[in-house]
Amino acid sequence: MRIPSLGAGLVLAAGAATAGNLPELTVITYDSFVSDWGPGPAVEAAFEETCECDLNFVAAGDGAALLARVKLEGERSEADIVLGIDTNLTAEAAATGLFAPHGGTVTDLDVPVAWEDETFLPYDWGYFAFVHDASLESVPQSFEELAAGDVSIVIQDPRSSTPGLGLLLWVKTAYGDHAPEIWSALADNVVTVTPGWSEAYGMFLEGEADMVLSYTTSPAYHLIAEGDASKAAAPFSEGHYMQVEVAGKLASTDQSELADRFLAFMLTDAFQSIIPTTNWMYPAVIPGDGLPDGFETLIRPAKPLLLSAAEARAARGPALDEWLNALSR
Amino acid sequence: MAERAQPLGAAGVIGIVAAAAIPLLILLATVAIIRVAEPGGGLTQADWAAIRFTLWQAFLSAAFSVALAVPVARALARRRFPGRGALVTLLGAPFLLPVIVAIFGLLAVFGRGGLVNSGLGMLGLPQISIYGLHGVVLAHVFFNLPLATRLILQGWQEIPSERFRLAASLGMDAGAVNRHLEWPMLRQVVPGAALVIFVICTMSFAVALTLGGGPRATTVELAIYQALRFEFDLDRAAFLSLIQLAITVFLALLAYRVLRHQGFSHGLDRPLLRWDGRTPALRLLDGILILFAALFLLVPIASAVLRGLPEVAGLPQVVWVSALRSICVAGASTVLVVVFSIMMALAATRLKGQGGWIETAGLTALAASPLVLGTGLFVLIHPVANPEALALPVTALVNAFVTLPFALRSLVPACRTIESEFGRLADSLGMQGWARLRLVVLPRLRRPLGFSAGLAAALSMGDLGVIALFADPDTATLPLQVYRLMGAYRMEEAGGAAVLLLALSFGVFWILDRGARRADA
């Protein structure tokens, strides 16, 4: 079994080499998107069916670190598309001048905000939430309860991870000037701060913490993919911050037309129907046959929270300093 | 002895240039950092926290390492038992052990699902967490307890055995021996050992990267990495590098002063017999201490090996490719170290009295931490090329840089000895240049050269520092790959890759070191 897998790898590598004469589209994205169970493999297969091209995903940490990489590479980037930042970072990303407008008209989106962004297009969205095992006793129902109790959590670094940044802005939006007090009170609940979502969720599954910052949709993964109904998302009385994940075309791309086709493809059923059961988020356009069975079991927060891209950009710096100060003590 | 004129030769000239290049490169990197550094509003609260954490964890690590090493070293000094030599050799192993492998092993023992927590769970005791301060200190003690033990053991062995005989003939018990012989020795040796460990711990990046968590457990080096890779904030990375540089230069100078202690007067090097330790209670105590130290070292490595070994054959292609990359980096780094250390050693020998600065120049490489040097190079490269494209060459270069002082330490004295023993003969035969190097110097340099090459290869193979700063997602070396697999919680694959890395690191050291010895014999 093992030796053949090495052999298969070599055959695949050889296959990749012969595909060299097709135009290549490089999409950089976050780690979990390209994992075996993520959307990457299915999206690649679906797009390559029609595009006469070689679609190549490159994983670069979590979403916020993705933006750092784009800045690092600047005009020299060999990537064509950046997929996986969210609306909390789009204003900062657009300000780098490294992205090109998508040029399309956007209609019929099922995202919970009006879409006016001319650079980025959304591909999915969700609500942040703390996910826990159903066996957890006295599940906190708010940040204040969480901070007062001794339930342990693992969270992501807002500098490298979009969920981490989402949590930062969630607390900021819910508590405003009192956010630093909430963070100080939360400090002793935090087992560790990971660079990305994948690490944090992995730690939670290994039992290193009682709860992990993830999404209201995460329990659907356990339910649908594993037939395990033991995971739940805790509804918080402050409301839940939302995330709208987006992709954009880099201005330095040498495959501009192909990149446009990919962005258009991203909003078709072929792409969108892959999202709910691989990325475990709500699709940006609900596919023809609706949401998969099991999604109806998920909590739907009564009070959604979201800052506009411009507000999020302005709030990020001060909120980050508050977070660093509170957690470094 | 009459001074014989010996021409520098091409090798000597290259050696001088290389020696001068080391402080120059550090200077260049520092200037680059200073030019970019943007103090902004000065040190933020988080910066202070990083500085505090760096110093505090280093202090705790040094204090625990030394405090535990003293009784272990004493036990080893007063006992003779089968396997003692092997155990003392084993104490040198952590120096070559890739940090990420050790961390994998420590997680297997002290992590949430590890042996210790399972034991605590069975006893109904609360679980311990390996993340944060405890984890960082634990890992540092794991690496430095052996080093401290070796340094202190050396101190014990430098006490002339005649003094112990005298103490015995005066009827001193263990307490009196301690007061009159051991305590004065410890007062000399322990501060130096503690300081060396303190300095090492302020520069240890991989431990903080893997076990530090969040702003509360961030070292200055980790903050540099975060500024670069999380936010791509070059100004801040440069500013933090300056802070780190200030810390290490200050400590390096301090260490340089403290470490020049004078030794004991020498005895006749008789075998050491300790009459004072011959009580059953002390025997039992020493036995327990030695057992504890051996287990503390061996169990994590053994659990890493046990967990990873069955996975090696099934490792995915990407791991093998990264292993190949690591071999190339280690190979390049080793060639750099071998070539430049020989030439610098030759230059130091041929310059005779004026050659002392060459070794000092090499030592300056220790003052800049690899990560600071890496940041400097990053800042220099970024305006002209994509630093990621140069990840592997830069890693090889910085790794070579860091090992060079160790190589010089063994090659310079060896070269001097060869020159004083065979120089006249070679001169009288008119042997110069390549012929002299090939026929006279190199054959006699084999052992220290093999050792230095082995060290360079092993350290470079296991390095997880600069590569993390420079690598793009596609070009991981094996240590970085292990780190990424651990991050993705693919623990089986991470274990397999860790064992592969362990085998490669010790394998290259063994081949080069043993190979040279065997050829010599």
Structure keywords:
heterodimer; A: alpha/beta; D-Maltodextrin-Binding Protein, domain 2; 2 domains; 12 strands; B: mainly alpha; 20 helices
Average residue-wise pLDDT of chain B: 87
Task: Report how far apart the termini of chain A are.
Answer: 51 Å
Which second-level CATH architecture of chain B applies? Orthogonal Bundle
Given the C-alpha coordinates, what overall shape of chain B results? Answer: globular
Which class of secondary structure composition applies to the elements of chain B?
mainly alpha
What is the mean pLDDT of chain A? Answer: 90
**SS-derived structural category of chain A:** alpha/beta
Span between termini of chain B: 32 Å
What sequence of helices (H) and strands (E) makes up the elements of chain B? HHHHHHHHHHHHHHHHHHHH
Question: What is the fourth-level CATH superfamily of chain B?
Answer: MetI-like
Largest sheet descriptor of chain A: 12 strands, mixed
Chart the SSEs and their pairings.
The complex is a heterodimer of chains A (329) and B (521).
Chain A: H1 2-18, E1 24-29, H2 31-34, H3 40-51, E2 54-59, H4 63-73, E3 81-86, H5 90-95, E4 99-100, E5 120-133, H6 143-148, E6 153-156, H7 162-175, H8 179-186, E7 190-194, H9 197-205, E8 211-215, H10 218-226, E9 231-234, E10 240-250, H11 256-266, H12 269-272, E11 282-283, E12 304-305, H13 309-328
Parallel strand pairs in A: 1-2, 1-3, 6-7, 6-8, 10-12
Antiparallel strand pairs in A: 3-10, 4-10, 5-8, 5-9, 5-10, 5-11
Chain B: H1 9-36, H2 45-78, H3 84-90, H4 99-110, H5 115-122, H6 133-158, H7 161-169, H8 174-202, H9 205-211, H10 220-229, H11 234-258, H12 280-308, H13 317-350, H14 356-363, H15 370-381, H16 391-428, H17 433-462, H18 466-470, H19 478-487, H20 491-520
Helix pairs in contact in B: 1-11, 1-13, 1-14, 1-15, 2-6, 2-8, 2-12, 4-12, 4-19, 6-8, 8-11, 10-11, 11-15, 12-20, 13-14, 13-16, 13-17, 13-19, 15-16, 16-17, 17-20, 19-20
